């Protein structure tokens, strides 16, 4: 008897256990919510260079010169200009009614801050050649024509090849009131568009920093060496703190796409530039 009661108790326990298991299996399981990752921070929008103001009355010609030579000979290259040629071109343009303005004023006009004369011409010289100091500056000074000199800072004062102006010469010219020095990168790469972002950024930031240290004023304009650039160059120029950058596209400045791709004519196209801008 004792044995049967123990067995019955064991059976009851087994049955009770099975019932509990069944009830547990049928009971709804708690819902575990999937862990939510915090929303990703929105990516900053890439600022697009602003287009120039459209519908301006002006038709601005920006002429870029390079080196000056006393006379042409077998060593002369296409971008050389003699004092006689420069004199002829400037006087002819003035006779046609050109108003010579500096590039900073041109920038204000192209962005709608001031109204430019219809026949505006801006003169600039690339590459910081000593020939500008010796041969071009006296001609521009005597005519009261403002000029922008674009400087590649790694080569200031170099006497290798074609000599470059020194910092003392650049500062002297700026003190006269008609000359403004602006940036043309540090080393003058042949084609910025083929360089990685980091190298382009270093060229832009480094040149601006050196010029501002030497001249003790803000530097806001940039010329792309050889006029070669791409959309990355525009973005990096803006990020470096420039307000306008210049190519060597051969059109009036008002036809440029935006503030960081403003067109300049090479000086050998001066007659074509006037014809395209003013029809004669």
Architecture overview:
The strands form 2 sheets. Strands 1, 2, 3, 4, 5 and 8 form a 6-stranded parallel beta sheet that branches. The chain has a two-stranded parallel ribbon with strand order 6-7. The chain starts with a helix and ends with a helix. It is globular, with a radius of gyration of 35 Å. The chain has helices at residues 2-26, 83-95, 103-110, 130-143, 167-175, 197-215, 231-239, 270-278, and strands at residues 61-65, 99-100, 120-125, 147-151, 179-183, 221-223, 244-246, 265-266. Helix 6 (197-215) packs across helix 7 (231-239). The protein has a single domain (61-278), classed as Glycoside hydrolase/deacetylase (TIM Barrel). The protein is built from 8 helices and 8 strands, in the order αβαβαβαβαβαβαββα. The model is unreliable at 1-9, 11-26, 30-34 and 41-46 (pLDDT under 50). Strand 4, helix 5 (167-175) and strand 5 form a beta-alpha-beta unit. By secondary structure, it is of the alpha/beta class.
Defining key terms:
alpha/beta, 280 residues, TIM Barrel, 6-stranded parallel β-sheet, 38% helix, 8 strands, two-stranded parallel sheet, single chain, 8 helices
Strand and helix layout:
Blueprint: H1 2-26, E1 61-65, H2 83-95, E2 99-100, H3 103-110, E3 120-125, H4 130-143, E4 147-151, H5 167-175, E5 179-183, H6 197-215, E6 221-223, H7 231-239, E7 244-246, E8 265-266, H8 270-278
Helix pairs in contact: 6-7
């Amino acid at each position: 008897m004792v044995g049967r009661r123990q067995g019955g108790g064991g059976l009851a326990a087994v049955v009770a256990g099975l019932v509990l298991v069944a009830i547990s299996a049928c009971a709804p399981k708690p819902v575990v919510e999937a862990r939510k990752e915090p929303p990703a921070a929105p990516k900053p929008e890439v600022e697009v260079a602003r287009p120039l103001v459209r519908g301006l009355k002006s038709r601005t010609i920006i002429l870029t010169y390079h080196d000056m030579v006393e006379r042409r000979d077998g060593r002369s290259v296409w971008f050389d200009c003699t004092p006689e040629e420069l004199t002829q071109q400037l006087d002819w343009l003035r006779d046609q009614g050109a108003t010579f303005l500096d590039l900073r004023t041109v920038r204000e006009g192209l962005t709608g801050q001031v109204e430019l004369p219809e026949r505006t011409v801006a003169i600039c010289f690339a590459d910081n050649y000593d020939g500008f100091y010796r041969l071009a500056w006296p001609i521009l000074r005597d005519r009261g024509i403002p000029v922008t000199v674009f400087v590649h800072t790694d080569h200031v004062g170099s006497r290798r090849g074609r000599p470059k102006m020194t910092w003392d010469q650049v500062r002297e010219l700026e003190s006269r009131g008609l000359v403004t020095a602006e940036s043309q990168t540090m080393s003058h790469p042949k084609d910025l568009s083929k360089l990685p972002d980091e190298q382009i950024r270093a060229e832009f930031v480094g040149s601006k920093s050196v010029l501002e240290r030497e001249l003790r004023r803000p530097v806001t304009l940039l010329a792309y060496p050889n006029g070669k650039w791409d959309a990355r160059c525009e973005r990096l120029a803006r990020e470096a703190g420039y307000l306008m950058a210049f190519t060597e596209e051969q059109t009036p400045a008002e036809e440029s796409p935006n503030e960081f791709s403003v067109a300049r004519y090479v000086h050998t196209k001066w007659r074509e530039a006037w014809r395209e801008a003013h029809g004669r």
